[in-house]
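ok so i was messing around last nite and threw this chain in just to see what happens. nothing serious, just curious
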Amino acid sequence: MSNIKNINAQQLKDWLAAGDTVLIDVREPSEFTEWRIPQAISMPLTNIEAHLPNLEGEKRKVVFQCLKGKRGEMGANAAVEKFGASLEVYNLDGGIEAWNAAGFAITRDAANDDAAQCGKCLPIARQVQVAAGGLIIFFSLLALAGSTIGAIMTVLIGGGLLFAGFTGSCMLASLLMKMPWNKKGK
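result:
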């Protein structure tokens, strides 16, 4: 059970307007560039330990946020473990989704605005999930039919996902970002 204090979107908005709060977005860089709270600073949870020293000596309130609140809470816990009571730490309950549902300002990447307007494109992270899932199903079915290539490809795709999970570097995402439907100014 976490002892991190949760705040709601309205409270965060008021604190940001007062200028006495630092907002840390712990989502992955691809998520951050898709859409974010304008004042947010990106510090991905996957390497939060490398970023936490930047908060040393911070006198303002520090609010962590993610998509729905769980990763934000994990980031807040990491800060409390490192700094104890010397840092006033909070988590945005409901994450950026709660902020957006409250109707507050969101900054969106221009490429994602285009995608949202034309309805043709999913965010890169979801494109990776769809592509990898589809390929794994396809090659698994080939493997079940006795294809060695199917079995090898299933292992390679799974290994690629494992590598991406550990390193934060996804070759499939890099490839998908180069596709015509993901280019700005389509």
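not much to say yet. The chain is about 55% helix and 10% strand.
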